[in-house]
Write a structure and sequence with these properties.
The protein has about 240 residues and is mainly alpha-helical. It is built from eleven helices and no strands. The chain is flat and about 70 Å long. Bound molecules: protoporphyrin IX containing FE.
Length: about 240
C-alpha cells in the first residue's frame, strides 16, 4: 500500500479499543481505575486517587531503573549505571512535586474522604516498598566495586579524578538518598497541613513518627564521609 493511501484511522494493534493509542496504552482500563462520580463520597477523591496512582507508576519506574543500575554495577558497568540512575532521580522529583496538588484539598472536606480509606496507609505503598528494597542492593553493588578498586569511601572522594565513574555513581546514590528525604519532608508537611501533625494515621501511626522518619538515610557511609573529609581537611591545614 502506498503511503498516500494508507488508512491511518484504522487500528492495527490487537485489542478492542477504537485506536492504536488506546490499545497500546490500555487507556480504557487505566481510566477506569478511579472511582466514578457516583461512587465518590466527595469529588476530591479523583484528585486524591490520581496523585496516589500516578505516584505508584513513577515509583514503579524508579524501582525498575534502580534494579537495572544494580545489575549494571554488578557487571562492572559503573558509568552506565550512573547514567541510568538519572531516571529514578527524575521520578523522585516528580512524585515530590506532585504532592503540592494535595494542598488543594480542604482539611475539613478531606475528612469525608478519610472515612472511606479503611486501614489504607502509605506504609503499604507497593512503589515505596519495592524502591526501599532495591536501594540497599544498589549500595551493596557500589561498595563491592569500590572495594574491588581497593578504595575506602574517603579515598574515593579524595582521589575522585582517578576514579571518575565510581565517584559519579557514589554521587548518584547520595542524590537519590537526598530525594527520598526531600519526599519525606514534603510528605510530612502536606500531611501536617491536611490532617495535622498531632494526630494518628489510618494505620495507627502518630504523624509525628513521619517527622522522625525524615532523618532516615539509605547510604549512611556516603553522608559520613563528608564529616571525615571536613575533619581530614582541618587536620591537614592545622
Ligand atoms: C492527603 C494526602 C496524604 C495524607 C493525609 C497522608 C497521610 C499519611 C500518614 C498519616 C502516614 C502514616 C502512616 C499511617 O498511619 O497511615 C503516611 C505514611 C506514608 N504515606 Fe502518606 N499521606 C498522603 C499522601 C501520600 C501520597 C500521595 C503518597 C505517595 C505514594 C504517600 C505515601 C506514604 C508513604 C510511603 C508512607 C510511609 C512513610 C515513610 O516511609 O516515610 N502518602 N501518610
Amino acid at each position: 500500500m502506498s503511503q498516500a493511501s494508507e488508512d491511518y484511522d484504522t487500528p492495527i494493534l490487537p485489542g478492542g479499543a477504537p485506536s492504536d493509542y488506546e490499545r497500546y496504552l490500555n487507556t480504557v482500563e487505566l481510566l477506569e481505575l478511579q472511582k466514578t462520580p457516583d461512587e465518590r463520597v466527595h469529588r476530591d477523591e479523583l484528585l486524591f486517587q490520581v496523585v496516589h496512582q500516578s505516584s505508584e507508576l513513577w515509583l514503579k519506574l524508579a524501582t525498575s531503573e534502580v534494579e537495572e543500575a544494580v545489575l549494571l554495577t554488578e557487571q562492572g558497568e559503573v558509568a552506565e549505571a550512573a547514567r541510568v540512575l538519572r531516571r529514578p532521580l527524575r521520578c523522585m522529583r516528580f512524585v515530590t512535586d506532585q504532592l503540592d496538588m494535595l494542598e488543594e484539598l480542604s482539611p475539613w472536606e478531606y475528612q469525608e474522604i478519610r472515612k472511606v480509606l479503611g486501614h489504607g496507609s502509605g506504609f503499604d505503598s507497593p512503589g515505596w516498598k519495592t524502591l526501599r528494597a532495591a536501594l540497599p542492593r544498589l549500595g551493596q553493588a557500589f561498595h563491592a566495586r569500590r572495594r574491588e578498586a581497593g578504595l575506602s569511601v574517603e579515598e574515593l572522594y579524595v582521589q575522585r579524578r582517578d576514579h571518575e565513574a565510581l565517584y559519579r555513581l557514589a554521587e548518584s546514590l547520595i542524590e537519590l538518598d537526598e530525594w527520598c528525604q526531600q519526599w519525606r519532608v514534603r510528605h510530612y508537611r502536606v500531611v501536617a497541613r491536611v490532617i495535622g501533625d498531632g494526630v494518628v494515621g489510618t494505620q495507627g501511626t502518630p504523624v509525628e513518627v513521619l517527622g522522625r522518619l525524615v532523618q532516615t538515610v539509605v547510604f549512611p557511609e556516603l553522608w559520613e564521609v563528608r564529616n571525615e573529609l571536613t575533619a581530614r581537611s582541618k587536620a591537614e591545614t592545622g
